[in-house]
Specification:
single chain; alpha/beta; 3 helices; about 45% helix; about 20% strand
C-alpha cells in the first residue's frame, strides 16, 4: 500500500507541476488531514525526497500535516479554489 501511495503522490505532483514547467522552482503544498507520524506523513516525506532525486532544486514540497490547514472540508475547498495542489484526506 505504501508503494501505491508514493506512486500516486508522485504522479499527482508531476501532473500538478506540468503547467509550471517553465518556472524555476515549483512549490507543491501537500495537505494531510490525518495524524502526524503515520504512513501518510512518511509518504509525503518520501515524495519530497523522490522529487529532489529526480529533479534537484526544481520542486519545493511544503507539507502541512495533521490538519494544520483545517479538516477535510476546508482542505477540499482549498483544492477547489486552486489555493493548494495536493491533499491526503
Amino acid at each position: 500500500m505504501r508503494k501505491t501511495l508514493l506512486a500516486t503522490l508522485a504522479s499527482l505532483g508531476l501532473a500538478a507541476a506540468a503547467p509550471f514547467a517553465m518556472a524555476s522552482t515549483i512549490e507543491i503544498q501537500v495537505n494531510n488531514t490525518m495524524s502526524e507520524g503515520g504512513s501518510e506523513s512518511a509518504a509525503v516525506e518520501r515524495f519530497a525526497e523522490y522529487l529532489e532525486e529526480q529533479a534537484p532544486g526544481r520542486f519545493n514540497v511544503r507539507p502541512f500535516l495533521a490538519g494544520s490547514l483545517g479538516g477535510e472540508n476546508a482542505v477540499l475547498e482549498l483544492l477547489n479554489l486552486g489555493q493548494t495542489r495536493m491533499a491526503l484526506t
